[in-house]
Amino acid sequence: MNAIHEPISTKAETVGEITASRPFLAFPAEGAIENIVREMIRRRQGVAAIMAPEAPDFLVGLLTERDILRKIFGPPGETQAQHDERQQHLSIYPATLLAQDVMTIHPLCLTEDMAIAEA
Hints:
The chain contains six helices and four strands; from the N terminus they run ααβαββαααβ. It is α+β, with helices and mostly antiparallel strands. The two termini are 24 Å apart. Strands 1-2-3-4 form a four-stranded mixed beta sheet. The longest helix is centred in the last third of the chain and has 13 residues, at 80-92.
C-alpha cells in the first residue's frame, strides 16, 4: 500500500507520535494578529496556539485561518448591524487587532499519550 494512502492509525498509536515531528506555533494572547499571520504564512501553518500572558505554558485558545476570515468577513447569517459594527471596528483598529480578539477560546485538547482510536 502506498504510504500516502495508508491510514495514520497504522503508523502511529498515540497522538504524541503524530505531533512530535510537526512544527508548533505558539503566541501570547496579546500578540498582534498581523505578526502572527505573517509567521503562520511563513511557516505554512493554518493554526497557532495562543498562550496565557501570565502563564506562557497554558493554552487559552487556538487561532485558525478560519477565525481570522470570520473576523474580517463575518460569520454566516450575520445581520447588517453586526456587519456594520465589525467593519467599523476593523477600520478603526486594524493594526491593534490581537490574538485574544479573534481566537477560539477553550479548545478541546488531546494528550500526547492518548490513543489514536480514543482521539
